[in-house]
Fold:
Amino acid sequence: MKKLLLLLILVLSQFGFSQVKLLSWNVENLGKSKSDGEIAYMATLINKYDLIALQEVVAGYGGAQAVARLADALNRKGSNWNYTISDPTSSKPSKSERYAFLWKTATIKKIGKAWLEKEYAAVMEREPYLCTFQYQNKQFTAVSFHAITKSKQPEREIKYFKFFPSAYPKSNLIIMGDFNCPQSHSVFMPLRKLGFASALVNQKTSLKRSYKNGQYLASEFDNLFFLKSKVRKLKSGIIPFYQNFHSLKEARTISDHCPIWMEFSLN
Structure:
């Protein structure tokens, strides 16, 4: 009986040790316009996760400072957080932006330096931001991306992700962000053929401008793509933060996108 109990504890502990809580969020113009109250609200919303990927951080004055303010607000929640911020994206003709990663130092370790993927800067207006992290003794590389708008045909950029696995053959890539394109689009088929799957399926993530026809959410734009042979998805979803506000107009002062998340274990 004792042996069975010890075996059960060992198995459960292994599952617990390899579980990561990852969140990705297009925060819409995260910069000096965000009040201290809004930053505090964001921290309360996301503090239970281990690693946060942010898109649409303001490139100019106030963007990096807002990430620092958010990290400070997270630190006040009882855990120690660190962060890294990208340089402004090359972004022509779109508006230049920054990306950011924030992580709990007790559970996540950053390996090396984060970098903007310059190889595809000429074909992606906001080139992806990559960083390798370690959870326990296993590593994965987070790839954060904000595609051009739907009207500009984001599939023209997304198609280049099929080259990332061969460009980083030793990396366990998890590609996340705002693709401005649903996971059902054929542009994701090459990734699927390489063994990737989307964390969310048929899940709208962006907010409408106003409540209409019983719907608050507009489009299926945000997602996370992971390699099934290296990542075991446990749970995934969105945080419907708009439910905390009286109107979508109020909610959109925080962001026009819901945070998306995935809990997973590393094989």
